[in-house]
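Example 3.2
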Amino acid sequence: MKGDILLVGGYGAVGRVIALALADKFPGQVVAAGRSYQKAEALAQVSGGKIRPYQFDLTTAHQTPELLDDVAVVVICLDIPDMQFVRQCLQQGVHYVDITAEDAILQQIEALDEVAKAGGSTAVLSVGLSPGLTNLLVRHAQSQFDSLQQVDIYGFLGLGEPHGPEATRWTLRRLNDSYTVRENGQPRQVGSFTEHKQVQFPDGIGERRVYRFNLADQHVVMRTLDVPSVSTWLTFDPPSTAQLMAFMRRSGLAKLLRYRWVEELIVKMSTAVYVGSEKFILQVEAQGNTDGRTQTQTYAVVGNGQSRATGLVAAQVVEQIYAAGFPPGVYHSEQLFAPMPFIHQLAGEEIAYHETGTRHKSS
């Protein structure tokens, strides 16, 4: 494939990881784009000239379709305001990769499947950790059973890694969410941080309390893999953060987050001092039937640095899209990539795979 790789938001925490990873393999073809030319230029200098800077406003890009004339792949590293630029990319035959974790945006892009097929473009969604690697773990789990009945997705996220205010705002705005999960094939209304359970994590973490949370992966795999029961649960390191969030939801204090000044105060406090480790664990506990027996198996990915890992996953997706032909249309990562080869390819980046023992029950 010929053409540039355009990274929108390419100098942010995740974008710069993607840009630098791709620049070594495609020098001169990676373009870091965003509203700040100065930030893009600074990243270009860090790369030794392998990255090209470009000033780019996503909100008006659809008005100048010629911008995409020399672009092969667009990578979006921020939440898009609408579908105009996405549609433009797909209509012009430009491949599209989006790292958003917002399910409402994912569903809007899914609706452009026919546009992508008509334009000969491939769009890849669920690119990152959750959704992303968790989706691949669920697909791998599904392949290990004659029939997969239930999946619980657990996230352990260390808060010691520097993170931007937008990540904190996004998490806080999910705290008051009520949403629908699927249990035994039937919809059930639940809420973020309204239920909890104890879970055993690998790599020396041990048992932790996890809480329901409205992450996109549980909704996506329900659509793509048709799992009868699926839920996502979350905890943090330090655990006091998750406990505080549960208390806020339970007591009604979380409703105060609707006031902008309260939200901004918490954002400011959380980004002033970083506590906890930088470790993350993504774990899938799957229950299904094999040879007439009900079995439960656990699969996990462990690493350090969520922004770095998200960027490395995205870079791997872009490299494969750029180098190999995939069918046109809109897909999630678990619909295009074989899970274990993809995950094992990350092993050189200190991202490890764990699989634990199986419990058997008569069925």
